């Protein structure tokens, strides 16, 4: 998989991809992550990428020219399955969306900034708009990092345990059950007996019941999705 991220602040987004699982995925050749400075595509002598909006309104808007040039330059090199724009008014990102994106080959993520981007870019190039939650960030870089991390870890071979991602929270609209490790008893606090039983079916049933109960208690909104009510 290849992910190209277009941003006005490349320094913010470089660090998350230089460590841990995402770095190993790149080292193994399972993922390519390329960060592009939008200012490199600006034809303005001062490398400006924003301008005032028509019709008044507070704040600046990301200009059409550098974004169009950046996207067209990348599209001339390969086909892209999705061109994603990170924006507060996009669809809320979740595990199911991460699963879908992990099946793609090439993605562009355009990081939003200021008061947004010229609407003509959204109308002409953007195929998917994504929000990471009902709040506003300074820019779309952190959102792009979240999307990239969630997607790349699902690629075959990225995690050493191939089944690990399939049992994460939010798969099947359930939170993960409680987890324990050695020792079996610590200062009077004991691991549930069922986990020590060696009976795989009992353990699986317990974990499933616990996942349902935790979801019902902690995330009733998610529990409704599990029941098919949403």
Question: Layout of helices and strands, plus pairs?
Answer:
Elements (H helix, E strand, L loop, with lengths): L1 E6 L2 H5 L5 H8 L4 E6 L12 E3 L7 E3 L1 H12 L6 E11 L2 H7 L4 E6 L7 H6 L3 E4 L9 H12 L32 E2 L2 E2 L9 H19 L1 H7 L4
Helix pairs in contact: 7-8
* Spatial strand sequence of the major β-sheet: 2-1-6-5-7
The CATH class designation of the largest domain is Alpha Beta
Indicate the mean pLDDT: 94
How far the N terminus sits from the C terminus, by CA atoms, comes to: 32 Å
Sheet/helix structural class: alpha/beta
Proportion in helices: 25-40%
Total individual domains:
2
Q: Would you list the SSEs in sequence order as H and E?
A: EHHEEEHEHEHEHEEHH
CATH architecture identity of the largest domain: 3-Layer(aba) Sandwich
Strand content: 15-25%
Which regions have little confidence, pLDDT < 50, spanning 5+ residues?
Answer: none
| Radius of gyration, in angstroms, nearest whole number | 22 Å
